[in-house]
Every structure is written in structure tokens, then in C-alpha cells.
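pasting for ref
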Amino acid sequence: MNQAHIKMALCLFACASACLAQDRRTVVEPTIPPVCTTLKASLALHAGKLDAADETKLDTARIQQALDVCGPAKAVELAPAGAHNAFLIGPIHIPTGITLLVDRNATLVASRDPRLYDIHPGSCGIVNDEPAGCKPVIAIANAPHAAIMGDGSIDGRGGEKLLNASITWWDLAERARAGGRQQVPRLIVADHSDDFTLYRITLRNSPNFHVVFGHARGFTVWNLKIDTPRTARNTDGLDPGPAEDITVTHSFIRTGDDNIAIKAGDGGVAYMTVADNRFFYGHGMSIGSETFGGVHDILVENLSLDGPDNGIRIKSNPSRGGLVEHVTYNNICIRDSKWPIVLDTHYNNPGPYSNRYPDFRNIHLENVRVTGGGRVSIEGLDPQHRVSIAFDGVTLDNPPQYKLSAAHASIAYGPGPVNFRLTGEDLSESGTPGKGTLPSCAAMFVPFDQHK
């Protein structure tokens, strides 16, 4: 080991215990504010669908009017009325300080008319090479202290055919595999809106990303449920960034892409806590692929990942990479994942590369247990852009059944038990793993329907 590698390893150990940085706020369970007005449903879902005759009976105007006149720190309540349990909307926006409250047994459903979401005439519901062409279903823009709460649900209906068309929003995503951009709405986009809250709400079937939060400080997600098929392409659960002071807790997420993807494109992401959550199918707890804005001080703890394609994942490449550092994973259980642990500096880009090099430093895994096989891969970019990572209590249920690979990495083992050793090109090692076993994951894996 050369002197540079020794210095990096010592820094890694020093930071492992000291860099448990997280959301700097004191986050407590949200409370539902007083109601300023209650709107009653006038439509009904049958087997989860609206009758064809109701597809043009929009509730957009009356919901927007109620939101616009509601007083600060109050809620507009959407309530079922007998057999009527649905509200149909095109794009709406939530003003400053207002909560949209969806009651139990009520569903807010997104219109399937792409013309309602057009940014420019005809710009939504197609595949092309143009900039984003669709408004989100729900926008929170320059509106601090807004929230979406309640025990009801919001359904983006990504798998249902567009009005007067033979394709769905998700079909457009599949078509875009061959090239181009799928012009489809995101479900919820909060931008320049500090202290945005999602509480107890269920989100389903977004045409694209479910929740995007950026250019703001303070995002609380508590007791959220995201429930979308694993075949629905590009349906990320939560995409924070650029942003600071974020907490995601007590939530259940299964979807067709990243369960969470921390995206640091036009700015950094920092001081984020992901604690006491349950993820199911999806592409895992991800950072990237955009990291050129920088990511630091992330804490992920008490997380189960049950059947995801990826478990713990940091991904980038030299056209969109940057510094990712001080990321701690503690008490993580991963089951039946193709790639349970993967740090990838060559993600999804054959070139040409630019000079935005991925640089992953001070990544710390503690009390991580993996079962069901798969691949563990730690791949730095080159000798000048290495990965530094510590395995402190990381075990595989049957190490010979896993594919292990590494390159251009500084790896620290221990002091907790580690029952595997990575080999590959340009590796430096330090530390001594302990012996013994880690606590069982039995209590961490629970059914998705156990969410409350």
C-alpha cells in the first residue's frame, strides 16, 4: 500500500464514526392542520377505474379555487360521499402554507388527457427530442410550508390508455428506449418550496417520477406509501435534489425504478436521513446518476430492501459525475437482489465522456446483511478517481454464491465481522474484520400490505 492509499484509509476510519451527518432539523411526526373547506366527491371508481362518461367531468377548477382561498396553515379536505369516492383533475398547484388533505377511501385521479398537461400545444403525450413538454399533475412552486396529507390516495393512472389514443403513459416510456424523451407528467413536483411535507398519503401509478423535490431546504416524508408495478419504466419513487435537510421515514415503496434516487444535477444534495423504511421491488436506495452537484452527509439506517433489482447503489459516469462523500448505511437488510451492493462509476454511458469524474469517498457500511445471492461490485473509475469504502459488519449468507468484483478502490474491513474479500485491479486494503454473526433480519422483512 502506498502512502496516498494509507492516508485515504486512515481518513476513512476517522470519518466512519464521526460523519453520521443527517437532516439538521429536529423532525417530528407531522400533524394535520385545521380544515378550511371540505369538498365532496361526485365521481366513483369501479374496480379502480372511472366510467368512460365521467372522464371529462373534471374537479380541477373547484379544487384549485378552494386551495387558492384557503387560509394559511389550513387544509382543503377531499372527502368521499356515499358511493362517490373519486376526484378527477388536470394540473393543479398548492399555494404557500396550504395542505391538500385526501381522506381515507377517497382517490384523487389524474386525467388521461395529454392536452391538459401541455406546456406548449401538442407537447405532451409524445416521444421526441425536445425539452420537457408536460406539466406535473400537482405542482408546488415557490410555495413554502405546503403539504399533501391524508389516508387516501393519488393515482396517476400511468397504465391506462390516454384519451382518444391506444397507448398509455408507460407505453411512451417503452417507446423512448429506442431514443428520444417520453413526454409524460410527473405526479408531484415541489420546486423552490421549503418545508414541504408528505404525510400518510398513498401514491400510485405515476406516469413518470412520483415525487421530485428540489432547490429548497426542508422536506419531510412520513408514513408514505408508493405502490406501482415493477414493469412501469422510469417511475422513481422519491427524487430529492438539489436540496438540503431531508427526512424520509416510516414509508413503504415499491415501484418500477429507483425507490429513492438522490440526484445532484444543477446543485448539491446534503444532510439527508432515510430511516425506518421498507423497500420492495424497484432499483433500490440509489444516489445518482447525476452527482456533479455533489452529495454529502447522507445517513441511511434501519432499511429493508426485499426483492429489488439493486440494493445499495451509487451510480454515475464521467459525463455527470462529481464528489459523493460521507455516506453511511447502518442496519440494512437486503434480500433477493441481483445487485445488492454496487458502486458504479461507468453507469449507463458508453461515451464520449467529459471531465465530470465520479469520486466516491468515505462510504461506510455497518451491520449490512445480504441474502439470496447476487453481485457485489465496487468499481472506481481509474487510479486517479478511486472509491474509498469501509465494510464494518457486512455479511453475505453464502459468499460462494455471490459474484464479487472491485477495481480502483481503497477498502477497509472491520472491526465488525465481514465474511468476504473483494479482489480485483488496483485495490488497497486495511483493517481486520471481527468474528461472529450479525443480528437476524427476520423482523425487518414485513409484507407490503402491513403499511399503515
